[in-house]
Fold these 4 entries.
Entry 1:
Amino acid sequence: MRIVIVAAPDRRRPVAALRYVSRWLFRCFHLLGLAVVALGVFSAVALPGDPVLDLAIIALGLFALAYPTGVVAALRRQQRGYAPIEIEYEIHDGGIITRYADGEEKLRWSDLQRAALLPDLLLLWLARNQYFPIPVDGLTPGERAELADVLDREGLLNRPRRGLWTTSDPAAR
């Protein structure tokens, strides 16, 4: 098996990857922000007390609501400092070879912790908070199925995150 993907520079790809990777954190911030704003509004309207404290509670909730937008904006600002380069990814049975203008990098499947195959991206985790997106929207259905088979065979697709315990974890604690 050999799949070659040539990735042209795309500023939307890292943003989409960040939104996918941080989706639960962003949802928690949104829910927390809504709850805190609702608490502040309820306190300001229905309860007698200090209006400055009520406004501070509402401001804290608005900050929690705006935090995910700030994280995405920070990523976009960070991207402006990088020169756009074209990257070629060669995916084969042994791993992934990444080629760019200054050289190449080889990753074995065993170097990766897990993977997520999305409709337009393949996300590969090297460490808990270190991942990189590969565009897969140009793959044929056959290549996509072959890629999914390789990732599944290597145990990367449904591998639980290390160091986290969940209720669906089959290992007894």
Note: The beta strands are 2-7, 87-92, 95-100, 103-108, 114-117, 121-127, 130-135.
Entry 2:
Amino acid sequence: MDRTKTLNEAMMYKHTPCNPFSLRPALLAACASMVLLSGCKSTEFGPLQADLSTTQLANQASTQQPRLPAQLNVVDMRPQHHVLRLHYKTEPAQFATFQQPLTMIIQQQLAPYLADPTNNPLRLQLNIQEGLCVADQTLSRHAMNCRFSVQVTANQSRGTWTKTYTATRNREGKLKLKPDYVESDMVAIMDTALSHFMNDQDFKDWLTRP
């Protein structure tokens, strides 16, 4: 049975490309449609799904009163937008992404906590700085390290507030890495970092400061 070896969560302050001219049309279409690529080599991984129904943010949403009037903008600052890089022996690394962009997933997670702003709106800018699981696979074992980091900047008439939230999760186990391991670990660390932000007393104190 696979197991999670360690779980470390912390807040921090402060392919080989396909050659279209060498492929027949049918092969080119198949290669272009893949979400997980290593050159044109497919794996058992398909589009990854983000299940947000059991997250801490989802569970707390029903008791979050009142909602925070704010304009939310989420930007993915990562140079590549995949959430998994998988290494197997000396073969080229393979990559996978969520079916939805991380920006949209974060907006969905925070939507129950935010309301349309009225006068003197609060502007929230969330910059995704890191969001990746790096995995090593052998015939009999796998190991994966995931890390998510988001910088939050809040602006309103009284000034600007900013902080970076980071969460990590490490896993290793027998046999092959499964897609749901990647899905659950990435959702978990995103939920941890965003929960730290939404429950940050420093942020709440700044909001009420005259």
Note: The mean pLDDT is 81.
Entry 3:
Amino acid sequence: MITFAAASKDCLGRLVRLKHRVWQETYAGIYPESWLREFDEAGHAEKFCKAIADRESQVCLILVEGQDAGYFILGKPKHPIIGVAMSVNALYLTSDFQHQGLGSQVWTEILRRAKAAGQTVIGCRCNAHNHRALAFYKRRGGEEIALDLGHADRSLDQIAFLFRVQ
């Protein structure tokens, strides 16, 4: 059974461990190797702390049978997307929990929260080299609305999506 728990400062260690793991699983060959090898736990904990304190953000742990499976952050776009007041600023499931239909359940929860907040559209930015995530967002009806490609640093290549909230 999947559940969603609002993250608090008490969850910082869990969130940082999840982020470190999903970055290693997702971004090898995309992000600079030093980012993965020398993961700045304190820096990422501070970012999570700010997101948790931000009244416009929802930081949620994704739990499956009580185990930490991932997290998402929904809120004001970190990078402006024209006409979008709410964005999926992070969405990760560890590899152990992928390809089981959980992503669809998470996406349904994200859309439910967006609708409850009065949103008719939400945005999302995704690394252009994260092909599994791109396919996930396209299967959910994501409309590509902006491309930022061709950077020497592949971590900067991004695709922005727009989703209708029904």
Note: Strands lie at 2-6, 58-64, 67-75, 87-93, 121-127, 143-148, 158-164.
Entry 4:
Amino acid sequence: MYLSNITFAVSNQHIEYFEIFLKKEVLIFMKGNGLTNEIQTFKLLDKVDENSSNYSFQIFFDTMKDYEDFQADIFPEILRQVEILFSGHYGYFQTLLQKF
């Protein structure tokens, strides 16, 4: 099993809309893709910057192929939407973990 953890930092002035976007747009888009077996979202409680909030988007995959297909076909579209809606007001990093 593989876990892709994508953490977004979003400026505080945009957090309410980002939460709605993540829950209503991204989760609905992701649930129909057939590549993932579970998706979870979390708001990080630790503050790195007082002017932003952080959100973790955790996506579970059964195989590396599913993850690679997600990276090639789906994640670029999510980032495109984030850039259109939140340009200049977000940053992100992504980590891939493997269960052992």
Note: The mean pLDDT is 91.
